[in-house]
Amino acid sequence: MTTLSASKSSIAFGKRSAGTLSAGSPSSDEKSSAGRLVRFSTLAAPVAAANMPLAVYLPPIYARDFGLSLGAIGLIFLIGRLWDAILDPLIGSLSDRTRSRWGRRKPWIAAGSLLFALSSCALFFPAGAITPTSLVTILFVFYIGWTAIQIPYLAWSGEISGQYHERTRIATYQTVLTSVGLFAMLVLPTLADQIRPGDGRLQLGLMGGMLLATLLPGVILTLTAFDEPAPLFPPERFSLGQSLRSVFANKLLLRVLASDFAVTSGQSIRSALIVFYVSFYMGRPEWAAGLFLFQFVFGILAGPIWMRIALRFGKHRTAVAGELVQVAINLGLLLVTPGNFALLLVLTLAQGLAQGSGNLMLRAMVADIADKHRLETGEERSGLYYSVFSLSMKAAQAVAIGIALPLVAWLGFKANGTNSQAALDGVKLVFALGPALAHALSALLLARFPLDEAAHAAIRRQLDTVPADLVPAE
C-alpha cells in the first residue's frame, strides 16, 4: 500500500474537517441491521428499473404509437445518452463539493427525485401529441433528475461504513433490490400484452406507474435510513482538469473500470443476442422472452450467495471466482444443440445464480479505492469515482451492441430472412465466446489486486484517527 510521508500526512490531516461519523450512521466496527439496509436500498429499484424502458421499450412505442420516425427517435435517444454521459462526472464532482446541514448527497437525491417524478409523468403519461422537440425537452430533464439521484446515491452507499466487508453487504442489498426492479420492468410490458396486445400506452402506463409508485417511498425510506457521515475534508474549488487527472492517474481505479467494462460487455452481448439465439439457433421463439425472465428470477438470489463468499475470501478474489464461473458457463453453451434444450435451461439457471457477481464486488471496491485516494491526497472523490464507474458501464453496453450485432450480420445472419446453418452457428459462437472472453479479461484484470482487506484496514486506521483539535469549524 502506498502511504504518505510524515510531512504530507500531517498536511492532509490538517485539512480535514471531520473524522467521525454522524449520530445516525454505524461506527467503523458496527454492522448495520438488515432492516436499515433494506430501507436504504429501496431507492435502487426505481433508479435501476428506469433503464429498462429507455433501452428497450420507449423507442418502439414512440415510433409505433406516436408517429415519430425511427431516425428521429434514434437521434433523440443518442443525444439523451450523450447528455447523460456529461452529467455523470459533473454531478459526481459537484456532490463531492456540496456542504449543507443535510449532508452532501441527500440534497441532490431529494432535488433529483422531484425532477425525475415530473419528467416521468410527461414521458410515460403523455397528455397530447409528442413532437421531437418535446421529447428532447422531457429527456433533458429526465436525465438530470435520474443522474442527480443515481450518482450521489452510489457515492453515499460507499460512505455509510468504512468497513471492508460491510461495504459488500450494502452493495449486496442494493443489487438484490436492483434485480427486483429490473424484473418488474420485464414483467409489466408482458402483462400489458396479455391484456391488450400492442397497446403502447398501456405498457407506458404500467411502467411509469411502477416507477412513480416506488419512487416516493424509496426516497423517504432511503433518506431516513442513515445520517450522512461528515466529510473528512473541506470542499475544493471545482476543476474539471483536476477531476479528470485524479481519475486517469489512479491505476487501481482504472483496473476496476476496465474490469467492469469487460463484465458489462459480456453481459450486454448476451442480452443483445439472446432473442436471436433462442428464436433462430434453438428454434424456440416461444422461449425467447421467457428464458430471459427465467435467468432474472435466479439472478435475484445471486447477490446473497456471492456476498457470503466475499465475506470469507474478500472482494477481488470473489470477483475473480465469479468471472471464471461465467467463463465456464458461456463455454458450456458451445455444447448446446437445438435438440438439447434441457442443457440450455441448466446453463441459464447457472447464469442467473452467477449474475452480477463481478458488478457487485467491483462497485464495493470503488469505495475502498476512494479511501486510499483520500488518505494520500486529502481529496474527496467518491462521487466522481462512482460517476466514472457508471459511465464505464453505460459505455460497455453501447460498445457491446455495436460489436455483437454487426458481427453476427457479417457472419451471414439475417433477423428477417432465411439463414444458413453457418450463419446460425455464427450466432452461437458470438453468443458463447463473446461473453466468455469478456469475463476472462475481467478476471485477469483483477488478479493479484493489491487493495485487499488487510491493506484497506491499514488505510482506515489512519483515516479514523484524526485528532479532534485538527478539525476546523465549518
Describe the structure.
With 474 residues, the protein is mainly alpha-helical. The protein folds into 2 domains: 41-227, Up-down Bundle (Growth Hormone, Chain: A), CATH 1.20.1250.20; 240-462, Growth Hormone, Chain: A (Up-down Bundle). Helices cover 75% and strands 0% of the residues. It contains 18 helices and no strands. The protein has helices at 6-15, 34-41, 44-49, 51-66, 70-97, 106-124, 132-157, 164-195, 200-225, 240-248, 251-281, 288-313, 315-332, 341-354, 357-377, 382-410, 421-446, 453-464. Helix 5 (70-97) packs antiparallel against helix 16 (382-410) and helix 8 runs antiparallel to helix 9 (200-225).
Describe the SSE topology.
Layout: H1 6-15, H2 34-41, H3 44-49, H4 51-66, H5 70-97, H6 106-124, H7 132-157, H8 164-195, H9 200-225, H10 240-248, H11 251-281, H12 288-313, H13 315-332, H14 341-354, H15 357-377, H16 382-410, H17 421-446, H18 453-464
Helix pairs in contact: 2-8, 2-9, 4-5, 4-8, 4-9, 5-7, 5-16, 6-7, 6-9, 7-16, 8-9, 8-12, 8-15, 11-12, 11-15, 11-16, 11-17, 12-13, 12-14, 13-14, 13-15, 13-17, 15-16, 15-18, 16-17
For this entry, give a set of tags.
single chain, 474 residues, mainly alpha, Growth Hormone, Chain: A, 2 domains, 18 helices, 75% helix, globular, disordered N terminus
CATH topological fold name of the largest domain: Growth Hormone, Chain: A
Total domain units: 2
Given helix and strand content, the structural type is mainly alpha
Task: Give the SSE order as H and E letters.
Answer: HHHHHHHHHHHHHHHHHH
Mean pLDDT across all residues, rounded?
A: 86
Main beta sheet: strand number and arrangement? none
Q: How many DSSP E strands? A: 0
Which strand-content bin applies to the residues?
under 5%
Radius of gyration: 23 Å
SS summary, helix count: 18
**Poorly predicted segments:** 1-23, 467-474
Provide the CATH superfamily of the largest domain. MFS general substrate transporter like domains
Question: In CATH's first tier, which class of the largest domain applies?
Answer: Mainly Alpha
